[in-house]
């Protein structure tokens, strides 16, 4: 099934319909998507990382989850398939796909599906309309980067096991540049755009064409990856890099996100969740750049084609686990000495749509 999930598009498969052996599976997916080829002319891919994605879904044996979701990023010009990152955009289509394929029975007018994200081990819960026992993709929810409107898919992310600040610090100096390394579902490096000599309002294509900037970002990413415990990230797509600038349209911050070389025309869901949480961290690079909310927990993250709203709440726990104050709610003391920030709640509204359902004929091996 080909589906749009959020601001991405991908091929969704039942795990049983693909080879179990990873190398055989990946070889088949490359041929299905038409890679390696900059146009992906001989497959389903859309010649861009945002449209060269795969979701593999199966029933879950985990009592806390209904289905398991494996995200695979298929290279466009390179013959590679990576499971090193998650995708919160395709995640929006996993629940509807599970109902369409009979993995989950519809639960009345609305259905909630608990999804174990195999790339990270984290859990997400997607809630979407199923009137009459069928997924309804029509609705009035609009998201930036997608024309028209569709039914809302509300995705909530319970607190994950990974530390919010992988380096244990709110701010690090990486390759001579102040950064905040944060992981609220997606390992992300936050950088003030001004510290790299750009405004943060440039068009993505202009930033991609800046070879000096590209070199600096690569150096930062490689060093930050090691600091975040990700090892050598030269051949991976994480961590993402998000440049921060003051908001231009009433949001909390303007962003330009690299994934990791191409500059995103919007921003990924999990990347935005990490940005939103990172802005609330006392002492982070967002201070003096962003305008986080003083009341409520909704953080509007602006991007090149609009915005994405993330609802997030941080709490500061002391090293012995004693709960501290909260951030993002306008109450409580923030940044108590020795306290560690934890993302207590993260939620987002996305949309998804079934584009076609049928048989794909892969390029011969």
Automatic annotation (TrEMBL):
UniProt-recorded name of the protein: 4-oxalomesaconate tautomerase
The keyword Isomerase appears for this protein: yes
Alphabetized UniProt keyword annotations: Isomerase
Top-rank EC class of the record's enzyme: isomerase
Top-level taxon of origin: Bacteria
Enzyme Commission no: 5.3.2.8
Similarity comment text for this entry: Belongs to the PrpF family.
Signal peptide: none
Gene Ontology molecular functions: isomerase activity
């Amino acid at each position: 099934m080909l589906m749009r999930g959020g601001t991405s598009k991908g091929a969704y498969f039942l795990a049983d319909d693909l080879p179990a052996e990873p190398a055989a599976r990946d070889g088949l997916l490359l041929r299905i998507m038409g890679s390696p080829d900059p146009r992906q002319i001989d497959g389903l891919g859309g010649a861009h990382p945002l449209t060269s994605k795969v979701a593999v879904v199966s029933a879950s044996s985990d009592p806390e989850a209904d289905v398991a979701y494996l995200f695979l990023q298929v290279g466009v010009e390179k013959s590679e398939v990576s499971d090193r990152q998650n995708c919160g955009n395709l995640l929006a289509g996993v629940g509807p796909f599970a109902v369409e394929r009979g993995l989950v029975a519809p639960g009345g007018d609305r259905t909630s599906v608990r999804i174990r994200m195999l790339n990270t081990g984290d859990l997400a819960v997607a809630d979407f309309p199923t009137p009459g026992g069928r997924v309804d993709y029509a609705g009035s929810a609009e998201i930036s980067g997608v024309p028209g409107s569709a039914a809302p898919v509300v995705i909530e992310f319970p607190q994950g096991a990974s530390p919010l600040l992988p380096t244990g610090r709110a701010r690090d100096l990486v390759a001579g540049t102040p950064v905040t390394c944060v992981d609220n579902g997606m390992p992300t490096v936050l950088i003030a755009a001004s510290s790299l000599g750009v405004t943060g309002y440039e068009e993505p294509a202009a930033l991609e064409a800046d070879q000096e900037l590209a070199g600096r970002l690569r150096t930062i990413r490689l060093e930050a990856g090691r600091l975040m415990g990700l090892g050598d990230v030269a051949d991976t797509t994480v961590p993402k890099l998000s440049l921060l600038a003051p908001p231009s349209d009433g949001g909390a911050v303007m962003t330009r996100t690299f994934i990791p070389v191409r500059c995103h025309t919007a921003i990924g869901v999990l990347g935005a969740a990490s940005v939103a949480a990172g802005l609330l961290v006392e002492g982070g690079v967002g201070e003096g750049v962003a305008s986080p909310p003083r009341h409520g927990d909704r953080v509007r993250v602006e991007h090149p084609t609009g915005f994405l709203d993330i609802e997030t709440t941080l709490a500061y726990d002391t090293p012995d686990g004693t709960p501290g104050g909260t951030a993002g709610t306008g109450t409580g003391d923030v940044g108590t000495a020795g306290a560690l920030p934890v993302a207590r709640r993260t939620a987002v509204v996305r949309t998804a749509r079934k584009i076609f359902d049928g048989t794909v004929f892969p390029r011969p091996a």
